[in-house]
Design goal:
Length: about 200
């Protein structure tokens, strides 16, 4: 789960590709925040949805304008304080908002390190979910690591990240069709990286 999982490919990407990769991972994590937000009446999921839409619009070059620097404060205001919320759901919600915050940073200054952080954050989110939901006290640390690394959900996460990378590296530049497909892939019919959905 550590630095060796940071994908060296990220450091070869163009600026728009780093943004697209970051946006796709944020999109896939978004339901984790949306559901938490609705259940505990915290934050403004609709506002964050619009900001993430703004990132996709920028990638697709729709002409819509958004000041991403101004949005950073709005996103930050939605990060749940993990000391305030004792329930597990606050953790993936927190990850989702931090991912979006980092995505905006990548929009402002394309940084492979920041994109790699998002990739690791998404993996950690999945790992924690598997540990919380399936590991028990009887397992040794090695067994927990094996459980996580061989778990279907982690395999899906790795496959998703690889698929996003494959699609963006195959394209020379961002085009509307690619971004639309990438967005649909990441949206995953509203199901998050840990299988959460916020459809009422």
């Amino acid at each position: 789960m550590s630095d060796q999982s940071i994908n060296p490919q990220l450091f070869e990407l163009q600026d728009w590709q780093l943004v697209a990769f970051s946006a796709a991972l944020s999109e896939r994590m978004f339901p984790n925040f949306a559901l938490f937000s609705r259940l505990v009446e915290f934050g403004n999921a609709q506002q964050l949805r619009q900001i993430l839409n703004g990132v996709w619009d920028k990638l697709a070059n729709t002409g819509a304008k958004m000041n991403f620097e101004v949005q950073l404060d709005k996103v930050e205001a939605n990060i749940p304080d993990l000391e305030e919320f004792s329930m597990y759901g606050a953790f993936p919600a927190n990850d989702a908002v931090v991912a979006l915050y980092s995505t905006l940073n990548v929009v402002l200054v394309a940084d492979a390190e920041e994109a790699a952080n998002i990739a690791n954050l998404s993996r950690e989110c999945v790992a924690t979910f598997i540990e919380v939901s399936e590991a028990d006290d009887q397992l040794s640390d090695e067994e927990v690591v094996r459980l996580i690394n061989t778990h279907e959900m982690m395999e899906q996460e790795e496959a998703f990240q690889e698929e996003v990378l494959a699609r963006i590296t195959a394209a020379k530049k961002a085009n509307k069709e690619l971004i639309t497909e990438l967005r649909a892939l990441a949206h995953n019919e509203g199901v998050s990286n840990i299988g959460i959905t916020d459809s009422e």
